[in-house]
Amino acid sequence: MGIKYEIHYPAQSMWQLIVAHKTPPTRVMRYCCADLKENTGMGEKLVTGVRKAESRNRKENQGAVTFTKPKRELLNKIKGNENFYINRQGGVVTLNLDNSETRRIVENCYRTNKTLINPLIEWKDDFLYWYIDKENIQLNPLYGCGWGRVGCIGCPMAGKNRWAEFERYPKYKEAYIRAFDKMLIEREKRGLKTIDIWTTGKKVFKWWMEDENLDGQLAFDIDGNIYEEYL
Questions:
Q1: pLDDT, tens digit (0-9, with 9 covering 90-100), for 14-35
Q2: All residues at 6 or more sequence positions from 107 whose CB lies less than 8 Å from its CB, including other chains
Q3: Cα-to-chain-centroid distance, residue 164
C-alpha cells in the first residue's frame, strides 16, 4: 500500500514574489520563507527533520515539540515549568517529554496555530549518518559532492556558498536577473525610491550577492520602501 501525500504549490513563484514584494529577498526580509515554505499546516501537527546540531539558531529555538503561536492557556500552564521555554520568536518549546504532566499539556494544546514535532532534535551528526547507512536511506546526491547544506539556490542565508551554487546552476542566476529587471520596472511604476546602484537587474544581482565593492543588504518596509538610512 503506497503512502498518501499531497504536494502544495505556492500561489506565486520566486520570480513573481520578487516583483510583488518589489525587493530582493534578504537576510532581514525573508518573505520567500514565509510565502514558499511556511504558509501551510496551519492548525496541524507537522513532523520535521530539524536537529540542534544543524545550526546555533535551531539549537536555541527548537525542541522536541514547538508551538509557533501558543494560546494564552498554554502560556499560563507552563509558567515555572522547567520542561518548557519561550523562544525568541515567541513560540513555546518543550525540552523533555518524559514527564507525564508535560505529556498531558502537549496533548491538550495541540489545537494551537501550528505545532512542530522534531523527533530528530537531539541526533548528532555521527548517529544520523550511522542510521542512514544502517537503513540504506537514499540521500540527495549533492551531499555526496561535498555539500553540507541543500536548500534554495541563492538563499541569502547561505553566505559565500551562493557563488558556487550559481556556478553550478547558471540558469537560476539568469532567472534572478530577469526578475530583478521586472522588479525595477515595478518600483518605477510605484514611484518607490531606489538606490543609485540599482540601475539594471545585473547590478541588483551583484549588490544582492554582496559584492565587496557594493553596500551590504538593505532593509525595507512592508510596501517595498527602502528605509531612509540606506538611501
A1: 999 999 999 999 887 888 888 8
A2: none
A3: 20
